[in-house]
Design goal:
With about 140 residues, this protein is mostly helical. The chain is built from 5 helices and no strands. Among the domains are: about 10-50; about 85-140.
Length: about 140
């Protein structure tokens, strides 16, 4: 009678439960390992951030990104002659205010770049050129 009970109860329940739980544990361990590997990859990426080389690479890839636009040349319409440029007083005030804001921002950027030690010759040329252009364009009322 004992063999019959053993044969009836031995349906493989424990073996299949064992396999199912081992599969679950294996999946959880793999998930945890994958998370740790992902976190390690992100940590290495954060550690390897280098703003100077990224900026240099960007400038190499897009050399015209910060180039001044082409010079606008006046083209006379039907024989018009222009001896000087004049502006209405409200617009003149706005232009002067904008000019002062640009000068202030340029001075701030110069200080930041000098502190950073990355103030190159081309940046000096751009700032001097911009400054000279803006000074040369004093608007008449």
């Amino acid at each position: 009678m004992r063999t019959t009970e053993k044969e009836c109860c031995d349906l493989g329940y424990h073996a299949s439960l064992n396999r199912a739980l081992r599969t679950y544990l294996s999946a959880e361990y793999n998930l945890e390992t994958s998370r740790h590997e992902g976190l390690d990859i992100i940590e290495n990426a954060v550690d390897s951030l280098d703003p100077r080389s990224d900026r240099q690479r960007f400038m190499e890839m897009f050399p015209t990104a910060f180039c001044p636009p082409c010079k606008f040349e006046f083209q006379a319409h039907m024989g018009d002659e222009v001896c000087g440029v004049s502006v209405q007083p409200p617009v003149n005030g706005e232009l002067i205010l904008r000019f002062q804001q640009l000068q202030s921002r340029l001075a701030t950027l110069k200080i930041e770049n000098e502190e950073d030690g990355s103030y190159s010759g081309s940046q000096r040329e751009v700032s001097v050129s911009l400054s000279c252009r803006m000074k040369a364009k004093h608007f008449t009322e």
